[in-house]
Write a structure and sequence with these properties.
Largest sheet: 6 strands, mixed
CATH class of the largest domain: Alpha Beta
Number of domains: 3
Radius of gyration: 21 Å
CATH topology of the largest domain: Nucleoside Triphosphate Pyrophosphohydrolase
Number of helices: 7
Amino acid sequence: MTIGTMAFAGSGLDRADHIRSDPEKLAALMDWRARLLRLDGLDPVISPESTLDWGTLADAAADSELVFLGLIGGRGCFAEVSPDLIGSVASPNPRLWAAMAALEPTELAIYGAARSLVDWHARHRYCARCGCPTILAKGGWQRNCTGETCRGEHFPRVDPVTIMLVEHEGRLLLGRQPRFPPRRFSTLAGFVEPGESIEEAVAREVLEEAGIVVRDVGYVGSQPWPFPSSLMIGCHAKADSAELTVDRTELEEADWFTRAEVEAAMRGEEDGRFLAPPPHAIAHHLLKWWIAR
């Protein structure tokens, strides 16, 4: 049983790595046919037809960097990194979600990839090794240090995050973070740390946040999450005990929920025990997968 297509996945872009590495082929794409994705800072500009808004390379500021996103129908697609753009560390706001809700899944995926890449460039203008300025390379899929003795090469990063269904005798462990809307619960999640496997990260995070030892960790599905550059790795695990020790610095509350309670939440019943994660989140799809399973 598969988890299905996630929000921000399924882009129709041909990433065309062979063009990224070839300056002549890349330059040949930067003609009147090339498309420039319009962004308001890092937010999408939505056309009157509720699609991504595209312009031409002539719309880019002279001092901006141009990132090659890929090909659609043989035409080069680019995004602009303006010199005054500040990288984001915040979660999406309601206005941004409303704009993204208007997009078709394939367009949302294009926007998500562009946002992550443009955001990375805005946050990596200087070399992490020596502090010298960096310049765009490989069509925007690399930045090179300009320091004479350094010449470091930097690449867009993706931060792996485990997000897990933890099950014990037919019930699911869900938690509430203080930033969640009232009554909303979701699956536990946490970043994979250096030197950890996915399975080890699942076990550590669940033990740290809820005091639960888990076993039989399995992979369910994944989701790119461009806020700013995570890869959500959905997993399922079994617990031998239901006794919770909640870390209040991480979670406001955690508890076990029955199948009937999860089903009621997924149906959107306002008088249910909790509110489910929103449909764009992988946690929502993990709960659907668990119910169907």
